[in-house]
Amino acid sequence: MEDIDEMGTKVELYVYDLTKGAAAMMSQILIGRHLDGVWHTAIVAYGREYFFGPSGIQSIRPGSTELGEPLRVEKIGDTFLPYSVFLEYINGLGTSKFAPGTYHLLRLNCNSFSDEVSNFLVGCGIPKYILDLPEEILKTPIGQALAPLIETLANSASAGFTVGQRFVEPRIQREVSPEYQLLNTAIEEARLNSIALEARRNELNEKLAKKERKKKKKKKEKRDKISRESGSESNSTGYSNSVSMADSEVAEMQPTNGDVAAEMLPSDRVLQMEADERREAEERKRQRDPPIVFKDSMDVAVEFEAFCNLLEGKLNDTERINLDELRQYVLENEGSWALGDNFLNFIGRILYDKSLVADVRVKLLNILAIAALKDDVILLLHQDRREHTIMNYAFDIDRHTVEEQLPLAQFMANMFENLSSSEWLLYISDWQHNNQNISNIRVTTKVAVHSLLSESSDLQVRGVAIIHNIACKEVKTVVFDDVVVELTMALLQYFNGNPSEEYLYASMKALARFAQISGQEVPQLIQMIGPEPNKFRGVSKRVDEMIDESCINHRNIVSEFITTDNQMSSKDTLENGNHVEEIVGKKKLRVQYLIERHIPIVKWLPKYSRFYAISDIIAGITLGLTMIPQSIAYAALAGLTPQYGLYSSYIGGFIYVLFGTIKEVSIGATSLMSLVTIEYTRDMPVDFVVLLTFLAGCVELTMGIMNLGFLVDFISIPVTSGFTSATSIIIIISQLPGLVGLRIRSESMVDRIRQLQITNGMPAITDNTSFLLQKLKDIDCSWVKHKNLRVGCFLEKTLWFLSISRNAIIVFIASSITYTYYQSGNSLFLTAGTVKPGVPKFKPPPFSTQFGNVTYTFKDMCSHLGTGIIIVPLVAVLTNVAIAKAFVRDGPVEATQEMLTLGMCNIAGGFVSSMPTCGAFTRSAVGNASGIQTPMAGIYSGIMALLALSYLTPYFGFIPRATLSAVLMSAVIFLIDWKIIKVLWKGSKRDMFAACSTFFISLFVNVESGLLFGTFANALFLLYLSARPSIEVSTVLGDKYVIVMPEIGLFYPAVAYLSNKITQIARKEAKGIYPVVVDFQRLQGIDYTAAQGIEKLLNSFENKTQLLIFLNVNPSVISSISTMTAAKNFKPINNENDLAEILSETDKKSTKSLIMPTFKELTEKTILPERSSIDTIKNDYSTSEEQESLLINNVNNKELELTAINVNNK
């Protein structure tokens, strides 16, 4: 019998709220019943936290889940069972009732497990309010309506749900030996007798397990690396692999007779393993590829002095201490122990305090970049794991100035100097930042990609360094699973800029490593996207080696095989069977890539978790509360009855969840689309609106199929801002009649202003109330948090909820007042009118209609809609892309896919009597603030719209028109962008002209004319830049030549301008003598006219005997010039070494041209040479026979003249 301590072991229940307090605020409104939370529970006993999930029974350190600290801790009781008994009991549950895959969201969940274990340990279960929660929710009307969806989520939960904790590795069931029981009895006695010993034991065991797992993974990586290098494929089965690994583990765990380490204490084993790890780390550091770092780029003493001067008088006592700690660390080379626990608070204050000048942050980042080279910087980084101050700032690199981005990227590159800090940069544990799940590897990737694709050459150098360091770091392959594609695409885009040999080599080396790590994924991307790496073959020997090492050229073999496939004999086909398999694999990858690109749900749905589902449900319901009153108001703005706005609010969300790419986009009626729609359907029946919706969808779908997404790029942000601001003002003025009782009927804004006649000045209470409610979310609740954190958080979330649901609150209150007056027989307000109840029938759009006594055919309806068939879809796509650019931070904007998706949404909308739809700025902002995770939120907001159509339409008739006007005005007034005028006035007068012209033409003429004029003005600016490219000119005195660098591509509008400029530079700057070097490094393309212009320029320089050299010419440009011209004297060079050789060969001739007259001058009588020097002149000037004859005749004539003069003188 085991001796059991009389005190027992404490058993606690950790209770978490999965909604983080949202259920307490919103449950009464959403389901009609108050809920304190949606509970997740775990049992804490024997120093561990145990809970149940789709992956089975899991255990972690208490309180270390991603859910944070538990909301409450309830003591269940004390247990007197030995730990060994409990362990066997848990193992039994893990293979039976609570085995992996048995999890069910409603019937067998974490709370069921907690109740089961609690009864076993202490004889009583967990509180009843936790166990009864699912049944309580399902009893509500909305719970019953959503029951099938919840059941679907419950059945699919085990496919991919994790809370993010570290799981216990599966145990191998084996017979318990007596020695094992004795050992556990001894451990149990020691643990129960001393709490300190128990904590130490757990710490050491956890550390040992971590070391063992790391060692096994390293061995596996080493085996994988050897197998890849040898090129042999493993034929062993899964059984043999598992047996061999098990044997190796047993061999490691069972020591030999003379093995002393087996008898070591756990602490001694840890010390020995740490020493072995240090030796292994040193060996890896010696053998690894050296990282690219920046050690001597600045003087840290100078930077620190400037940093202190900028902060003089701006720090408190604590911050001054932190500043002194930084000085000790970077200037006096003290260890990181000199940095206090609150040092990261000081760093965060400098980085995020916008009252400080930007130069302060630049100096701090420069200092940190130098500190990153120290071997103990990892201790500073581990402090950052609590608040993620540095990494959050780095993730927002695209929001900082270029001056701040440069030292930030240098800091990330220098972190790869040491193994520990470089491994820290590649951690995959994630956290939340701006409603996004990010991790260290994601932050590092974003900084690398942003820097590499920046317009700053210095920042590009840092980006190359970071990507090279990432690729050459020996890490687990799984680290690159999510980022290797993004890094590869960035490298491929960088290659289009013709980098120099040094950075090309580093980039190609990184690409080769990515190709080895990812298998077929990276070569497939190169094949589909390009450019072909063989384009750079011949740049240098080491670049060629990297191209060969990456095995990228293998795709050329596959291509050749495809082209000759029909000509192969059966024997050749058998010999090339491996090529066939690879071709099939590449085709499958191609198909998979296309499916994921055009049906994005296929990519993110397998990763859909319960956390995502709960977040999307909350965001979807919040969007529904915003969308329903807005849709009713937008329908009124388009001249339609309220139900048509709701018809537009559900079908788009259902389709966008399948094909949409931006999670924040909420498809439905918008103020902008309503305004544009009424421009073409005013005073016409609703059939015209429905047909316009269908035709707009057809146009959008056609544009998407033709890959015309790039057209949206020609509409700049200033034009979009001017267009949006003008339409917002038009909407506000159009809503004044409904708001304050104005009698206005006119089609233009000018006429509306002229006809202002106030007849019934109704107070704009609803409008002012809406504005006030919107500002509630801006109230600072920090002073309440300091006094009571829970009350402060609750108050902050309540104000936020009231702010985002302001429209629903206003509509509900105003409708209730109207209904009350209606019941008493009074009609105080003008209402929205009767609303047709029910969901619309699914029917084809009307291709003909009758209005009054006139019948309109399809041709007549299209003729009446006119340019609206093009303008409406263009505005819709522009809006969606603008939303994407506003919210997408770490990826490209797929304009073509948005066209396809919007097309399908509007085509489907034509079958349910919808008005034209697109994304809405206001709803997208609400979704982003609500924590939306995927487009699935559109399903829930669409369900709310359907419920409103089914049950609430009788009450929509009581909504006052003044309320709808207030909803519209409060939604669009914040879209007026006044700040951009000041920015454009200081930064770009051209963009200001485009924005202002778009604004005023849209405001005083019509919106489509304003948009077209602004786009046309931007296009003219682009043509002007193409015709007048800027040219950099510099004179190199050492080698005595002039270098000319055109900024952009050379096409026909710029040929004459560029030729004249180069000729002028050759005459003035080069003085007609020095060579002129034209650097085509930034030149990416050329056309026929430009090629002919280069040929004429070469001939002109050749006639003047002045040297014209072309440097860094793109291979495609060389090919174009060779094909389209007959210029034999066009000899481009690729690097500056060849340039130096050419200049050295011509140096003598250039020197002689400075001190000797030209041959033409020699033939003049004033400076004719003596007869004795004629042979020397022929050698120096390489004269032809004709020139030699002319020179001799002139000399003879001069001698005769001199003889005659002498005779006369005598």
From TrEMBL:
The chain crosses the membrane at residues 611-634, 654-676, 688-711, 723-744, 799-822, 865-888, 937-956, 993-1021, 1041-1058. GO terms for molecular function: peptidase activity. GO terms for cellular component: membrane. Pfam families: Peptidase_C97 (PF05903), STAS (PF01740), Sulfate_transp (PF00916). PROSITE patterns: PPPDE. SUPFAM superfamilies: SpoIIaa-like. InterPro entries: PPPDE_dom, PPPDE_sf, SLC26A/SulP_dom, SLC26A/SulP_fam, STAS_dom, STAS_dom_sf. It is a multi-pass membrane protein. Residues 210-222 have a biased composition (Basic residues). It is found in: Membrane. Its main location: membrane. Belongs to the DeSI family. This is PPPDE domain-containing protein. It comes from Microctonus aethiopoides. The lineage of its organism: Eukaryota, Metazoa, Ecdysozoa, Arthropoda, Hexapoda.
